[in-house]
Amino acid sequence: MRDSLRISIITAVSIFLTLFIGRLLGINSLFYAGIAAAVVSQTCYKEVFRLGIKRVYGTIVGAGMGILFYNHLPQSITSFAVGIFIIVYICSEILKAPANMACIVFLAISTNLDNISSEFYAIHRVLDTSLGVISALVVAFVFRTLEDKIKGTQ
């Protein structure tokens, strides 16, 4: 099977599973779960787990920094830029992970929470991202297993 077809199928099924489970669980914002499933699914089988774990770590870093900055530092463009600098450095240098989701979660928490606690929001972003990553892992594993069985019977 061509890689583009394989990735298309895995991505679509991963997002479907993420959204389906998210609706069953009553998750209000499936956006972050869907993003995580889409990004993690867009890689080869061997990378899905590694990338998925790094995505969750990055989300935790962004959420933690968002809570810290939202609750303890002035809401200013300068403090947001300092937060982004720290997050990108931690993700790049220490975690060796992409910082994009960490930056998005940080900005969502530190710049625009209305009547929601930063801790509540952060926990839900980590759970949403984890749901997307787990869905992508399951779909990639099942797809790989089925593909190996089909190849073995030919």
Account of the 3D structure:
The chain crosses the membrane at residues 7-35, 55-73, 80-109, 129-146. It is found in: Membrane. Keywords: Membrane, Transmembrane, Transmembrane helix. The protein has 154 residues and is an all-alpha fold. It has helices spanning 3-25, 31-41, 45-72, 77-95, 100-111, 118-153. The chain contains six helices and no strands. The radius of gyration is 17 Å and the shape is elongated.
Quick recap:
This protein is mostly helical and 154 residues long. Helices cover 84% and strands 0% of the residues. It has helices at residues 3-25, 31-41, 45-72, 77-95, 100-111, 118-153.
Q: Estimate nothing, just give the exact number of structural domains.
A: 1
Strand proportion, as a percent range, falls in under 5%
| Arithmetic mean pLDDT | 87
Counting helices, strands and paired strands, the structural category is mainly alpha
Radius of gyration, rounded? Answer: 17 Å
Low-confidence stretches: none
Number of helices: 6
The largest sheet is:
none
Distance between the termini: 14 Å
Question: How many E-type strands?
Answer: 0
Order of helices and strands: HHHHHH
> Level of helix content?
over 70%
Domain Integral membrane bound transporter: 18-139
Transmembrane segments: 7-35, 55-73, 80-109, 129-146
InterPro entries: Memb_transporter_dom
Pfam family, one: FUSC_2
